[in-house]
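hey so i finally got around to running both of the ones u sent me last week. sorry it took forever, my laptop kept dying halfway thru and i had to restart like 3 times lol. anyway pasting them below in the order u listed, first the sequence line then the structure token line for each. didnt double check formatting much so if smth looks off just lmk and ill redo it

first one:
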Amino acid sequence: MPDIDPAVTRQVHELMPYTRLIGMEVERFDADEVRARIAWDPERCTSNGLLHGGLLMSLADAMGAMVAVANQPADAKGTTTVSSATNFLRGVTSGGVSGVARPLHKGRTTVVADTELFDDEGRLVGRVTQTQLFLR
């Protein structure tokens, strides 16, 4: 279980209110790495008690946006996702999902983030690569 940082989680919820709605908790948020988690809950599931894939994509998208925000140039006014590719590798029926997002590319106009999602046993659940565009 990661060491959740309530102050950073509150900061992220203020920056992106949707992260509060999905129950995202944040451990780390800086230019090199973002770590966050979402707990399993029956309200967040699809059939057979599987954590919904859209929720996992939301977690990864928010984490990629955080990587971009942490790396944005001074003249940028924000970011937006321009592409995202998701590979699901296993379902999650209990516990939760933790993610680690890191920048693959830090450019002047875009950031490419790679996010790995893990279940509580440390097994890879999914991987998301996305491009975030800096808004000016």
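and the second one:
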Amino acid sequence: MRPTNIPPGPTGYPIIGNLIPFLRDPLACITQCAREYGDVVRMRIPGMEMYLLHHPAHIEYVLRGEPKNFIKDAWTRRLSGLLGKGLLTNEGDSWRQQRRLAQPPFQPG
């Protein structure tokens, strides 16, 4: 029996988890997961678990409410060598400063 505090999600395959459908069509995979499993979905890919957030309040909590409680995974950190230290790969005070600079165009009015 699975603990109740783990979000639902697709079972996937042994070892590779949900990698094949995610790589085949990431947007379709994420959309289907949201429809089938709800606002918070757990997915597995080799070496890590991903949690997909679909509800705006959950996303706001991660980005604005308590970002210090959420760290980038090792995969994303490795991407910084290729992509640089941007909003996707950066963390901490530097990320916060970049986010503040990028925020004005997204404000209403």
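quick thing i noticed on the 2nd:
The chain has two domains: 1-66, 71-102.
anyway thats it, ttyl
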